[in-house]
Amino acid sequence: MVRDFLGSVPAKCENCGCASPKITPEGATRLYRHALSGKQRETNAALGVDLEAELEALARRGSGADGAELAGKEVEEDDEETAGAATKKRKSKGGSDADDGVDSDADDADDADD
């Protein structure tokens, strides 16, 4: 659903012609905004648009105090989320890294002497 939405976002604003950055999802919860190319930055500068300032202004006008507080800042995880993530362990698919019956290259020289 997120990919469908991001795929429908136009590369340029229909109103002013400003180039918009590409946004790609990674996983279920992360979105990354890619930097504009040189040509896109030049186009925006010619139109008199400072994209960073515009995005910060939108965040301030956004959904209340959280938007203004976090505008242009990196977000840190909450302590509750961090504590829960630290206790979870990933299950291995193929077993452990212990001896699985396959000789390593260092053992091959010893096997040839026997």
From TrEMBL:
Residues 62-114 are annotated as: Disordered. It comes from the Eukaryota. Residues 97-114 have a biased composition (Acidic residues). This is Uncharacterized protein.
